[in-house]
Structure formats: C-alpha cells, structure tokens
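REQUEST ID: PR-0412
SUBMITTED BY: lab tech R.K.
PRIORITY: routine
TASK: structure prediction, single protein chain
INPUT:
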Amino acid sequence: MAAVNWAATSTSLTTAIGGATGTDLTLLTDVRTRLTRAGTQYDALWAAVSGVDAAKTTFDADFSAALTAWWTAYEAAHTDADRAARYGESLEAAASGAYLARVGDVAIVLAPASAISWSADETPIASAYRHLLATATPALRVVAKEAGTPGNRIEVRIDDATSGATRYKIRVRLGSTYEEAYDEINPATPTAANAASNGGHLLAECKQLGTTRPDSTGAWLALTGGTGGSIAAAALRLQRAMQLPAAIAKVPAMQPYAAALTAAASGMPSRAAYNDGGAFAGRGRIGQRLIGAPTSVLDLEEQVLTIIAEATRLLAVASY
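STATUS: complete
OUTPUT:
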C-alpha cells in the first residue's frame, strides 16, 4: 500500500494562490503551509519505519471490512430514524399549515418529503454549494447553511428580477414546500446578494463573485458537494421533531428509533482504534510497525488526509 500522495493537492493550492486575494488568499496559504509541514514529516517517517508498507495494507483491509459491516447496521437505523422525524414534521405541517416551525429559539424548516441520505463517509464534513454561471464563468456562489450531507437537499434557481432582466432574483428551496426568494439583486453591488439572504434559513453564504449577474437558470439546480454529518443530522432532526407540538403525542413511538440510531452510531469503527496495537487481538504487529517512532505514521497520515480534505473543499468554493 503506497503512502498518501499530498503533493498533487499542494500543487493545486499553489496554482490557486497565484490568483487569489483577500480572505481566499489567507485561507489557501494557511492550508498549504500546514499540508507541507505535515506531509514532509509523514513522508520522512514512512520511509524510516521498517515494514510500514505491508502493515498499512493489512490495516486498511481490516479497517475497511469493519466499516462495511458497520454501514449495513447503521444504514437501517438511519433510514428508520429519518422516516420517524419526517412523520413528526408532517404532523406539524398539517396542524399548523406552515413549513417553518420553532423549537425553543431555533427555527426549523419542515421538509417531510425530503429524506437526509445516510453517508458512508462521515468525515470530513463539507458543506454543499453551487456556482451559478454567467455564460461559463462562476458569477454567484451559494453555500448551504446546514453542513454535510443534508445540504445536498437544497435547490437554487436564478430568475429575472420583478423589475426586469437588469437585476435578478435568487430562489432557494428545501423540498417542494418551503422556499425563500431574494428579489431585485443589483449585480453592480457585489454585496447585495449576501445582504439580501441574511436572515434566511437555508443558505450560509450567497456571494456574488464580481459585478456580472448570473444567467437565469430556467430550472431548479441542486447544491452538491455536501459530505459527512449524516449521523448528527439524523439524530438532531429526530430530536427536534419530537419537540414539535403536533408530534408530542407520538414521542413514545419515536423514541426507540432515536435509541437505535444512537446505538448504531456508537459502534462506528475508528481509524484511531485500529491504530492502537492493543485494541484488537492479533493486530499488535500492525500497531508496533506503524507506531515504531515518537509519532505514529497513521497519526500523521490522518492529519495529512484531514488537511487534504480541507484543501479540497476550499479549492472547490474559493473564488480565485
């Protein structure tokens, strides 16, 4: 099993840095510095530890098999929990006639027809986003407020403003029942889109990338790129659904699904556990070979992979 190749990501960061400014330049430079530091140390340790290549091959096979077994159990628990949450949301929507509710001080968008897909890869958590184009050039970037897999449920479209085609309207929705619209966005004012969307419940960012208005899309476009976070999202959704006034009577029937989801999530195998040579019988030789230095090869590899994932997300959404 070969070492992780971090150099390709470093090269992409260098290219992006060449055209970046402001916050994007700061973030890109910082992540490249951290990646170079961790990657250089990782490469040196990989070369120094005897038998690391064969040991990592065994480690990866064992860890992959454990994850595959866990996914089967977790997927069923996730699906049941999300279905129970959507049932609670449907009761609230039917009783109130609205698709925006509150649990304490938290506003909740009710989307009983929109399931949160379970994620086979819970880390890293990345937010869903979409670039809206002016011809072939990104003109507007929208990012989901809810991080991870749930953000992929959001859709966006661009229409002409009510006043005409010089300005534009941003429409964003979750499911087919809840929509937010921001009209009369003036492309000559780059901050107008973000200012208009402040206070909304679906987007964390709505950033115009210049002074050119995005083209009308003519259709709804899904946000993409949201990864991870399905465990926490499903648990939180069900927890909130059980607090909705119209669902209170159904809480005893919903609680077993919450408990089953918690139990399934707690059994998720971790790389850190498999990194511990004494954690699993017969795997001590793997731990010894991979931890045959002051810093574990696997610990460093985990750092490198995390930084690569962070860089990949940043490169995808940075305006450069």
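NOTES: The chain has a mean pLDDT of 86.
REVIEWED BY: pending
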